[in-house]
Amino acid sequence: MLTSNSAWSARLSVQNTARRTAALINALSAPEAQAGARTAEAPAATEATEAAEATSSPYATSTTAGATADALAVADVLPAYGEPDPLAISAEDIAEMREAADALREVFAAGSAGAAAAVLNALLQRTTGTLRLTSHSDGSPWHPHLDSHDDAPWGEWLLASSCLALTVLVWDRQCPPGGVCASPSCRAVFVTLNSGPARRYCSRRCATRERVAAHRRARG
Ligand SMILES: [Zn+2]
Prior knowledge:
mainly alpha
C-alpha cells in the first residue's frame, strides 16, 4: 500500500519513534518489577493474561502468562504507531524486546543530557549496527536505520530504532529525551515534548492521584 509522503514522514518522525519506544517499554515492563503498578494501575494487564489463557491466541507460543500478556500488549502498540500487526512475533522475540526495553528504560531514567548521552553511547557501541539508509525496497521514503538489515529480529529493531530517535532528541534539545513517572505505583516512561519545565508524572491522572495522596498525608 502506498501512502503519501507526509503520512510516511509523520510515521517515521523522530518524535513518533521515541513515543513508540516509550509505549513499548511500558508494555514490556517486567511483571516482577511492575507488579505493584499493574495491580494498582492496570487491571487490564491481568484481564489480558486471563483472556490469553482462555483463548488460543496466535501469540500464545510462550509457556508463561507474563510473556503472553506482553505479546498482546506489544501487538496493541505496534499498529497504533503504523507498524504492521506483528503476527510473526514469538516468545523469543518478546524476551529479546523486554531485554531491549529494560536497557532503553535507563535512557529515560537519566536525569541530564550528559547522563542520557552516556547511556546511549554505551548502547550504540554495544548493540547497534552502523548507520545506513533504507527505503524497504521502495516501500517507504529513504530513512535511516541502525539495525543490521531490514528483517532484523524484533529486539534488535527496537534497540536500534529507539537509540537512533533518542540520540537525535538529545542532539536537538540538549536535554534528556524523557523521564520516568514519579508516581511509585506507576513508573511509566514518557517522552518530553518540549524543553519546558521538567515533567514529573507521565499523565495528568498520575499527577492528580499523587497530589491527592500528598494532601491526605499532610492532613494526617
Ligand atoms: Zn504515571
